[in-house]
Amino acid sequence: MIVPQFWAEGRIQERVAGQQVTVRRFGWSDDSPLAAQAHADQRTRGAYDRIVSGEKLERRERKQAYNGADGVPIREEIVERQGDSIITRNGYGARCLNTPDVLFVDVDFEGEEGGSRRSGRGLTVLGAAFIGALVVGYATGLAMAGVAAFMLTAAFGFWRAHKEALPVVEDQGDPLASARARVERFIHQHPDWHLRLYRTPAGLRVLAMHDVYAPSDAAVTDVFETLGADKVYARMCRNQNCFRARLSAKPWRVGIGEHLRPRPGVWPVSPDRLPARDAWVARYEKAAAGYAACHYLGSVGNTLKVHMNALVVQELHDDRTRANSSLPLA
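The line above is the sequence of Transmembrane protein; the predicted structure tokens follow.
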């Protein structure tokens, strides 16, 4: 995980075979603006040489706060550092926790993919048995064969549900219950894991307490897939080599309709535009103070197993999100 303090942009413009070629690349550093500029110039020269040799590369990197061009780290204002964790202000103004190895899973209830996933899991044991009976009955032309298929399929379904601690019916009307059922199934298969569960305005947040992980670990891919992690979040974790959790409210949920100023809210901004940004941030923080980013629901698994790095991050997260308060979610 890299969240640099300083940023710069390099630019090379030269004529090659009668055509003008312009290449720009960003550079970054935690040391100084000069070091960031040197890094930008080095990256620009490397990209320019590859482009003029015939390699098809983008001539200019897009200025994005998070999950931008390949190889470009998180480009957000650093609000606070706590050990290996860094709190930044994202592109729409909320504070976010970034950690290199403490696993957060973001399960979003919104969106077509989430809805499709839930409806696919909503098939009951009896529903599956009924479909099986129809198929067998139609294929054989014998009603008794269909009845036998129904009984066998239902019996197998109930046996498997009991053996693997699966729900016989998953409540499609309550996405939180559906998400928690997936967590329970995961814990049944991984009883040594310790997971803390949080309700967010649009979903479920899961924090692993028993161990630390790299975003590229196979175990991370498995838990993301099993719990139905938001696909954009999963991709960002891999690209930025970190895990992430929003600590403060989304502005539009607390009555702040105006976007973070200046637009776009990508760090850094020029000194002459900082007063407008600071004024927006002050108004936002005042409004957000009356809300929680998530609520703690409970813990599952081996709750006695706690990794110290995870504990430090959990305490920071719970404090800044107001997870144990009764404040409304936003």
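Note on the example: Residues 111-123 have pLDDT under 50 and may be disordered. DSSP finds nine helices and ten strands in the chain.
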